[in-house]
Amino acid sequence: FSCCGAYGGVNSTRSWYLYQNASAWYQATTVLEGNKAPFVPLSCCKRRADSSVQDQPRCLGNVNVTNAPPANPPPLTGSNAALFIEGCFDAMQSSVSARILVAGAVGISYVVLMLAGVIIGFIFARFLAVADYYGSKYTAFDSSAGAAGGAGSSSSPIVT
């Protein structure tokens, strides 16, 4: 979803800043790596076409950019082009919202097709019941004329 954290944007304490503010991941990483600890996980970093991280030191906050995430807390006026700043819940919600109309249309179409199949089935069953009740009166061809309706035979439909 090209996101980082939970909710919000660049000035939210629940998006990218969530990792520094309230996560066990950040506390454990700081203990293990000291001052070189990343401020956000690699999953928050934008990637190139070859799947490598775009600008890893800048994204992780190891290079401090004036008033920009992730090394500085919100509110911010700077930006970091290597870091996803939108929260993942927000990104997922907008993705689902964009596709919900299509999913609803497919679901309604499926129901309409199933109902049409049931109605057509009832119509055919009704025709079969009528044919069984009246017998051969509604057959298309006279059985005495033969199947092929050869030369000189009268294989015209019976009209009653």
From TrEMBL:
Domain of life assignment: Eukaryota
Chief localisation class: membrane
Subcellular location: Membrane
Gene Ontology CC terms, in alphabetical order: membrane
One Pfam family named in its UniProt record: Tetraspanin
Keyword list, A-Z: Membrane, Transmembrane, Transmembrane helix
Membrane-topology descriptor: Multi-pass membrane protein
InterPro entries: Tetraspanin/Peripherin
Annotated TM spans: 100-125
Keyword Transmembrane among record annotations: yes
Keyword match rRNA-binding: no
Protein name: Tetraspanin
Organismal lineage: Eukaryota, Metazoa, Spiralia, Lophotrochozoa, Platyhelminthes
